[in-house]
Amino acid sequence: MLPRWSILLLLVMLAGCSGTTKSVRLHTGHGESIVLTPRSGDTAPVALDEDDFVEAVEALARNVRPSTHPQETARRFFEMDPRSGSYLYEPRSHRVIPLGPGEHLDGDLPSTEVDLTRAYLRWCERTSNPGDCLRLLVESPTVTGDGRYALAMALAQGVVRDEMMDAFKEMADPQAMMAAVLWTWTTYCILLAVPEPFSKGVAAVMTASLIAYVGVDTFWSLILGFKQLVEEAERATTFDELREAGERYGKVMGRNAARAFAMLATAAIGNTAAGLGSKVPMLPGAAQAAVQAEAQMGIRLAAVADVGTVAVSAETVTIALAPGAVAMAAKATGGSASAKARPLGYRAWSSFSGFKKAMGPAGKNKEWHHIVEQTPGNVKRFGPQALHNTENLIPLDKILHTDVSALYSSIRRSITGSSTLTVRQWLSTQSYEAQRDFGLLAMENVAKGVW
User: Fold this and answer.
1) Is the CB of residue 372 less than 8 Å from the CB of residue 436?
2) Which of 9, 50, 289, 393 has its CA 20 to 30 A from that of 113?
């Protein structure tokens, strides 16, 4: 169980600073830190279509083997020490026996815990999953400690939980998969349930990816909301009180943030930081998340695996990452890096024909491809030399070039969130760096058959 003082301290700390301007500090180990201050209210959670969400979670789950001890597995995964311990319950003597060194804990179980546990089992039965459907009783005979938080989180998921069960329906044990996602999600939230949260490895990549999908403001709301959920879950004496606490947190999340959270938790199970980082750019909504990652955190979503640690205070998210993961726009904003710095051999031209005259053919079965397209709007906004240069023009396989161009001309609601705009139209209003990040992601995903 979380120390009550730590929960109250962070609640006071975050509540007292909820009106302050949030900032993101990037550490690359080279030169000064880069500090960005995202404008409040500029972003919202990436819109995720139900069909795309279910399809993605189903595909991710195919590579997962759910553990029979999901809580213990999640703790090991996030490198957390046991918090409530593992126990056996001896019914005849009413003793709770620690598994490992320690004395027997004598005495009857509190009636409130017994009643809550019975109500939980009835709820499982009502949802057509009789028994310990969320694996809350594997380490304790009653719903207590972290089990309360997990149950409240399951109740917070609302309709998203039904969507996940739809995604898992073809699995041998759908409920085991649901329990694995729930405990991964809850245990990750517990990492954020201490003053000055700090995450590393997979948790750090998950944090950066979550911020990309929901934005800095919503991420802070999720932290504060979970603290309140923990407080209410500890005070709850009935199932109804726990359900009300979960439903309140569900409203804080909203459907899109809940879908993003569930999708990332599923992608994280059993993965390494590098493995999770490679999956994120191929998930639904990744194009919009890439734009948000640049605008909110100054990082390239395609390089999210390079995030080493993330620390969260009341006013600042501090991210340590490799220099190559920093977006050019962030470099131009602060720190020692300069947006005008160019690699050795960089050259630019005022026209595409001038580029081709100087550089010659792209090569056998290849064509020159603009990563940031040479549309009239882009020429007007960024200038021709920003488009016709050795950084933005690359030789690309002819077939792949045709397929990427077709993607830009198509309407893809799963990418843009729009049923009327083409990808090109949607992209045209965004920054140069956002268009470049999307262009790199588009080539990768089209080549892999993801888009």
Assistant:
1) yes
2) 9
